[in-house]
Amino acid sequence: MTTTAVQRHVTGLQGQLTDREFGQFRALMYSLAGISLSDAKKQLVAGRLARRLRQLDLDGYGSYLKRVQADAAERQIAVDLLTTNETYFFREPKHFDFLRSHALPELKGQSTVRVWSGACSSGEEPYTIAMVMAEVLAGRPWEIVASDLSTRVLAHAREGRYPMDDAAGIPRPLLAKYCLKGIGSQDGTFMMKPELRGRINFRQINLNAALPDIGQFDVIFLRNVMIYFDLETKRQVIRRILPLLRPGGYFMLSHSENLNGVSDALKTVRPSIYRKPAA
């Protein structure tokens, strides 16, 4: 280990994140993901990147910035580190109550019911949607597309394994019906059953770029992600997404978000629940 490396190991520091460097990381995240980092996020950025600097044995944030700018794989790692991924099962339960009691029962015919979880994080949201759909739709075909910008959380979501403590929000009957308790080396965890995981197509999608051809949906969840966008970015994201929502389909934001000044193409049904007018 070099003298410089020893010094860093002892102090645990790679130097301070300067205002200029923070501004460069902020511009990078905006260009890559449309995320607007406020001045208050400077310490969060420094903290989340510090471990990566140690792993790469770099002498400062400026050196890491150069690495990120030159290496596409490292850019993805930086995005993974700097995107917020807090989530849990049945978060904001009124949305799932509405899905169960109104949105799904209203769908007529035998065509495949499709739902998009547009910021799925580590998978708790789409698996919650899947449990509700499995209960309500019985023998009718259905599927979920679950997307996120972070490859790290998508890998976790595809596996579908969680600490047992995370099961606290899942109703006991659904936990018993759709989850498997870990044993042996997996004790203390649970896993979503394969028949549920098989209904979900996890994909990396950047909401701030041209969207891939993923078809149209009866319901779109886009919760707890618009809060990180500025107004113009929100407008652009909604313009991209609206064509993917079928006429009469429902659009869900988190309870802390709304479409005021963003779009008037959707009609408010309830706070944070919108509907696209029927054709």
List the helices and strands and how they pair.
Layout: H1 3-11, H2 19-33, H3 42-56, H4 61-70, H5 72-82, H6 93-103, E1 113-117, H7 124-137, E2 142-148, H8 151-159, E3 161-163, H9 172-178, E4 179-181, E5 189-192, H10 194-197, E6 200-204, E7 217-221, H11 231-241, E8 245-252, E9 267-270, E10 273-275
Parallel strand pairs: 1-2, 1-7, 2-6, 7-8
Antiparallel strand pairs: 3-5, 4-5, 8-10, 9-10
Helix pairs in contact: 4-5
What are its keywords?
Rossmann fold; alpha/beta; CheR_C; 2 domains; methyltransferase activity; 279 residues; Bact_Chemotaxis_MeTrfase; 7-stranded mixed β-sheet; SAM-dependent_MTases_sf; Chemotaxis Receptor Methyltransferase Cher, domain 1
What does this structure look like?
- The structure is a single chain.
- The chain is an alpha/beta fold.
- It has helices at about 5-10, 20-35, 40-55, 60-70, 70-80, 95-105, 125-135, 150-160, 170-180, 195, 230-240; strands spanning about 115, 140-150, 160-165, 180, 190, 200-205, 215-220, 245-250, 265-270, 275.
- It has a 7-stranded mixed sheet with strand order 6-2-1-7-8-10-9, with helices on one face.
- β7 (about 215-220), α11 (about 230-240) and β8 form a beta-alpha-beta unit.
- α4 crosses α5 (about 70-80).
Summarize the structure.
This protein has eleven helices and ten strands. By secondary structure, the chain is an alpha/beta fold.
Average pLDDT taken over every residue? 90
As a percent range, the share of strand residues is 15-25%
Tell the overall outline.
globular
- Poorly predicted parts: 1-14
Q: CATH topology of the largest domain, anyone?
A: Rossmann fold
